[in-house]
Amino acid sequence: MANASVKVDVHHITRVEGHGNIVVDVQNGELKQCDLQIVETPRFIESMLRGRPYGESSHLTSRICGICAVGHATASLRATEKALGVEPSEQTILLRKLNFHGEMLDSHVLHTYMLVAPDALGVGSVIPLAKSAPEVVLRALRMKKLAGDLCAALCGRHTHPIAMTVGGFTHFPSKADLEALRKRLVDSRKDVEDTVNLFLQLKLPAFERETEYIALHKDDEYCFIDGDLVSTDGGKWPVEQYRSVTNEYLVQHSSAKHTKNQRASYMVGALARFNVSYEQLHPKAKEAARALNMKPKVINPYLNTVAQVVEIVHCVEDAIVLCDKLLKKGVTWEAPAKPARLSGEGVGSCDVPRGTLFHNYTIHDGKVTGANCIIPTGQNLANVELDMRALVPTILDRTQEQITLALEMLVRAYDPCISCSAHLLDVRFE
Amino acid sequence: MPAKPKVAFFEFTSCEGCQLTVVDSLQMYPELLEAVEIVRFREAMSEKSDDYAVAFIEGSCTRPSDEAPLKAIRERAALVVALGTCAHLGGINAIRNRADLQETRTYVYGDKAEWYDTYPARPIEAVIPIDAFIPGCPIDRHEFIRIVKNLLQGRAPQLPDHPVCVECKLKENVCVYQRGMTCLGPITRAGCDAICPTYGDGCEGCRGLIPNPNVDSMKQVLEQHGLSHDAAMAKTTLFLTYQMMQREAVGDGKRVG
Asked: How many domains does chain B contain in total?
């Protein structure tokens, strides 16, 4: 029999980054309230950027988030470079792509193994898994360490990167560093294969709701840095027009703004990238997608985690390709490319682990005068709430505990990064 | 301290990067899990317990509603450790302490500013007494393990009180001043193995000032290299705003920004 009245109140959802609450109120079979409350403290990052030298922006904004520090730094650098007419070298572009794969792997391994897998295996965290399935935990730690070491070789550390600067890098990996990384990446193929097999066995809830999926896209590569905004509902926008895609608005129950484009909400992240850019995936990643029964367009939000598994395959394979290119070219210690001017406006955009990230700066005489950052999790909030509204009426026959778990798993599937999102703003450019 | 103390992690205003560094430390030192029982770590586990002996707190106190939970943690824990620069010194959160708070709120949240509770950012120690701190943005994983070992053995953690320059010289780095860059190494607490200068950037002071920073000597170094004192001291506004404002308040840190 269906529950006539259900109240779900999850204070501070666990195994997500940052602070959020789920509040659902069903009275006599009618859904009265269904909110994902964002209760993170406001951070005010953008207002703190104002008046600071442009070279500091990437160091300050990487502190928005410990998980996507490289992503924030990269988007920040691209915004500054576009504002000041800086053209990074081919070597810089290759090193940034390789570094980005390190962060993508680190974040995806953390989310798939440590945050999601415990639900599918019926435990509260990865710690009991260390006893019941030590090989799974050791594999996750091994993969995460490789990802962290990759970033450390390129930019000093993953949280928070040091050697990434406007126009290039201030430190370079040696030939031996790259060779060692390449070998470890090749050796990790077995771990990657086992990861695919693990998620082949895990049962995730069957729930579908079609929405608009948006990601950065390039025709000649599976795109994480630069590119155009592309929607599965049709439409392509240069990143400079991001405001016409995000259309931010404030809601009182969230210190992060909501967004919408062509429908009431849209989704960004691994599943959106998979749906938008499937063709550009590495052949081995497509093979894994087939094995995992993933074919675009996938409209089950719980499968965002599986799309991350597909991206783990892609990132390991593409990182090997990038190591080969860098080794063939030979890495040289080059000075960062210089700015052509000291005033201007620029938009930098990257598809970070959780989706499309925008940094937009105005710079005057070398100092930041205006800043706006739009973060993936903020863009997903409206979509999560609509998923919850669609899901709750279909599971009212379950116990309160099961309903709560299904909702927590849904929120977790989006891999929300709440401390990132809780500092969105109404920007004023001076 | 019992044989296997219960440990809890908490976060206030922060990026949670220090707790991620704790996860990374466990990758390198998994035996730590044998020595303690983690009973609360919201970022990584669903279990939540209010029974703990050691509390690690990441992040700054930035709103009135942060104070009651901080005081509750203090009452429950035998040992409270500030984890990372935000908790230890206010970190980047304190940058806004020099700006007009109302203007800052309006800049970010427009006419909805009143919806969001906030006040000047403070280190944890400004609200509750702490027993130890682990400096850095983020914390250094080796130092974290070292300090946890000290605490488990009932000893006061030892932190270096010499400047970053000492470690930088030992690493045989070319001084970043000689490359025309500014660096807070001469007045910043060591312990990070001079990681920023090693990767080609000047020290930004994230670990806090050494106990008796010789700012006059730092000025001389800057002059010798023909560098602007203002440009270097502007760096203290990134992580050290709270500490510098405190020094100004007692008169021994004349406004130097």
From this structure: 2
